[in-house]
Amino acid sequence: MRTPLHLLILIVAIAGLQACRNSMEVVISKHVDPTTIKRVAIFKMDRLSYRENDKISDLLIHEFLRLGYDVVERTELERLVKEQKLGASGFVDPNKAVEIGKLAGADSIVIGSGALAEKEKDVLKYFVIKIVDLKSGSVVVTASLRNEESIKNAIGDLSAALKRSLEDHQKSR
Fold this sequence. Notes:
- By secondary structure, this protein is an alpha/beta fold.
- It has one domain: 3-Layer(aba) Sandwich (Rossmann fold).
- Helix content is 44%, strand content 23%.
- It is built from five helices and seven strands.
- Strands 1, 2, 3, 4, 5, 6 and 7 form a seven-stranded mixed sheet that branches.
- Strand 5 and strand 6 (139-145) form a beta hairpin.
- Helix 2 runs parallel beside helix 5.
- Mean pLDDT is 84; it is low at 12-20.
- This is Curli production assembly/transport component CsgG.
- It holds the Pfam family CsgG.
């Protein structure tokens, strides 16, 4: 027979595993309806190299498509950035990103920043994205990494957390 102490240890262990699995925290604005987002433009993340940005952009495109969004092709965004003579570093100022997102026919943009735990490893120690509605200019959704995680796992967790949060948001309406 299990004692209350055994049950308490089991509950703490399960909670610890759950916390590790939920590495992303998602916040949805109470003022803008996230279900209006249909077509997103994903910009390069600030403070990351081209290599990490390419990897993150590709994974974000994959996950946003998997979630049912229409995604502006990255080469189209890069063409518009060059046309506007912006972002020599690859990162575009958020105010200019709004302008370029509109030119690309998106109704929202995904911007953010991140930092690697170590330069040689693909482990993020910091990662935040914002989904900005282009009609209102308001941040609709933010997602933030809670603990260090590989780029691939972090983006996968972001997708799962975003999906759960959007489903919970729909249920609460």
